[in-house]
Specification:
Elements lengths: L1 H14 L7 H6 L11 H5 L19 H10 L16 H10 L13 H11 L3 H20 L2 H6 L5 H20 L5 H21 L2 H17 L5 E2 L5 E2 L9 H10 L25 H13 L1 H23 L4 H32 L5 H19 L5 H37 L8
Antiparallel strand pairs: 1-2
Helix pairs in contact: 5-6, 6-7, 7-9, 7-10, 9-10, 10-11, 11-17, 12-14, 12-16, 14-15, 14-16, 15-16, 16-17
C-alpha cells in the first residue's frame, strides 16, 4: 500500500514537470507530441492548440549554441505566447526591429516597429514566417558573436548557430512555396512578410544579389495582385484588390534610408551607404575611401534620403487615393520624383568624373538604393503594357549593381582570409 502511494506521488510529480510542448498541453500538464504548427493530441481531442513559444524571444545571458539547442529540443526558459493574443511583447518588437538591418549594429534606428509587430503576430500561426524569423535571429546572433562578417560566413566550419539559421531559412522557403501553390490573400500576405525577413537574412549573409532578387519578387507580388489602386486607362482608376497586403516597398525604403555614420572615424563608421557592415578593402584603401566618403557621400546621400522620404509620403497618398482626379494629381508628383532621381544620378556621375578614381563601394550602395526607388515609383499607380518593358530594364540594372557589390564583398572575404592566415586581423566597421 505504501509502495503504491509512493508510486502515485512520483507519477504526479513527473506530470507536473512538463517543460516542453504547446501551451495547452503545458497547462493541462500532459505530454505533448510537439507537432507543428498544432499538436496532434489537441487536434485529436477537439481542443484548441494554443501553439508554442514566440520564435523571437530574446535569449539574454546565454551562448548562441545553448540558445539554439534549447529552441530545438524544448524551448526551456522561453516564455510562451498564445496565438490568440492581440499584442506582442515590446522587447520582441525591439529585437526584430534591430535585427532587420546590420546598420543597427552602430545604434542606428530603423523605425520599423509596425513591420516587426505585424511579422511577429503572423509568426504565431504561420510556420514559414516563424521559421524565417528564427533564421534571422540565429544568423544575426552568429554575426554579432563572431564580430566579423567575412570571418563568420567564410569559415570552413560554420558554427551551430549559422547552420541552424540556414536550416530554418530552407524550411521557410519550402513552406512558403507550398503556400503559394494556390495563392489567396493569406498566402500573399505570408509571402510579403517572409520577403521582408528574407531580405534581412541575405543582407546579414552578405548576399546582395539574392537580397535584390527577394525585393524584386516581393514588389512583383504587390504589383501583380494590386496592393494599391492603379490606372488601367487614361482616366480609369481601379481600386486595390488586396488593400491590406503588407507594404513591402515602404519597408525597403525604411531599410535603406536609415542614417549612416559617414563622419565617424574609420574604426567605427558604417561605410556602406546602406546595409553592409564590413570594410570591403585593404587598410590603405580604407584611408583613401574614407576621404572620398567625406567629400562625396554626405551630400549625395542626404539628397537621396530626402527623395526617399518624399517617396514614402507619396506612397501613403497612393494607398488612400479615392478618386481618379486625386490620382491624376499624384501622377504629377510621381513624375517630379522620377525627375529628381534622374537629376541625382546625373550629379553623381559628375562628382565621380571630377574625382577620377574607382567608385567607392558606398556609392555602389547608393546606386542600389537609387535603382530600388526608381522601380518602386515606376510601378505606383501604373499597370500599362509599356510599364513592364521599362521595369524589366530597371530590374536588370538593379541586378547588375547587386552583382557588382557581391563581387567586391567576395574579393574582400578572400583578402580577409589571406590576411588572417598571415596573422593579420581582418578589419571590421
Amino acid at each position: 500500500m505504501t509502495g503504491s502511494l509512493v508510486a502515485r506521488k512520483r507519477n504526479i510529480q513527473c506530470k507536473t514537470k512538463v517543460k516542453t510542448g504547446c501551451a495547452t498541453c503545458r497547462i493541462r500538464k500532459v505530454k505533448c507530441d510537439e507537432n507543428k504548427p498544432f499538436c496532434q493530441k489537441c487536434v485529436d481531442t477537439g481542443r484548441t492548440c494554443d501553439g508554442y513559444e514566440s520564435p523571437f524571444r530574446s535569449l539574454t545571458g546565454r551562448s548562441i549554441n545553448n540558445a539554439h539547442a534549447g529552441s530545438i529540443k524544448s524551448g526551456a526558459g522561453l516564455q510562451p505566447i498564445r496565438p490568440n493574443l492581440t499584442e506582442i511583447a515590446p522587447q520582441d518588437i525591439d529585437l526584430l526591429n534591430r535585427y532587420f538591418s546590420t546598420k543597427t549594429m552602430f545604434d542606428v534606428k530603423l523605425g520599423c516597429d509596425e513591420e516587426a509587430r505585424q511579422i511577429l503576430q503572423a509568426s504565431l500561426t504561420d510556420p514559414p514566417i516563424r521559421h524565417a524569423v528564427s533564421s534571422l535571429r540565429a544568423l544575426r546572433e552568429h554575426l554579432e558573436t563572431s564580430g566579423d562578417v567575412a570571418a563568420s560566413f567564410a569559415q570552413e566550419t560554420p558554427s551551430y548557430g549559422y547552420e541552424f539559421g540556414l536550416q530554418k531559412y530552407c524550411m521557410a522557403l519550402g513552406g512558403l512555396a507550398a503556400n503559394l501553390s494556390s495563392p489567396g490573400f493569406n498566402g500573399l500576405k505570408s509571402a510579403l512578410l517572409c520577403c521582408q525577413i528574407f531580405i534581412s537574412i541575405e543582407q546579414v549573409r552578405g548576399n546582395y544579389a539574392a537580397m535584390a532578387q527577394h525585393m524584386i519578387q516581393g514588389l512583383s507580388i504587390m504589383h501583380e495582385y494590386w496592393a494599391r489602386s492603379h490606372f488601367v486607362a487614361a482616366n480609369k482608376l481601379v481600386s486595390a484588390h488586396h488593400d491590406q497586403l503588407p507594404l513591402l516597398d515602404v519597408f525597403i525604403i525604411k531599410l535603406f534610408a536609415a542614417p549612416c555614420k559617414f563622419a565617424d572615424p574609420p574604426a567605427t563608421a558604417d561605410i556602406s551607404g546602406t546595409t553592409v557592415a564590413v570594410c570591403v578593402m585593404s587598410p590603405h584603401q580604407q584611408t583613401v575611401e574614407s576621404r572620398r566618403l567625406r567629400t562625396i557621400a554626405p551630400d549625395m546621400r542626404t539628397e537621396l534620403t530626402r527623395i526617399a522620404a518624399t517617396t514614402l509620403e507619396f506612397l501613403g497618398k497612393v494607398s488612400h487615393v479615392e478618386s481618379a482626379g486625386n490620382a491624376l494629381q499624384l501622377l504629377s508628383e510621381k513624375a517630379s520624383l522620377l525627375d529628381s532621381l534622374e537629376s541625382w544620378l546625373v550629379d553623381l556621375e559628375l562628382v565621380l568624373t571630377d574625382i577620377r578614381a574607382p567608385e567607392p563601394i558606398s556609392v555602389s550602395f547608393l546606386r542600389f538604393f537609387h535603382q530600388i526607388l526608381k522601380i518602386i515609383l515606376l510601378g505606383a499607380l501604373d499597370s500599362s503594357p509599356d510599364l513592364y518593358a521599362e521595369l524589366r530594364t530597371e530590374i536588370d540594372r538593379l541586378k547588375g549593381v547587386a552583382s557588382n557589390i557581391d563581387e567586391r564583398v567576395k574579393a574582400y572575404r578572400t583578402w580577409s582570409g589571406t590576411s588572417s592566415g598571415r596573422g593579420e586581423p581582418s578589419k571590421v566597421r
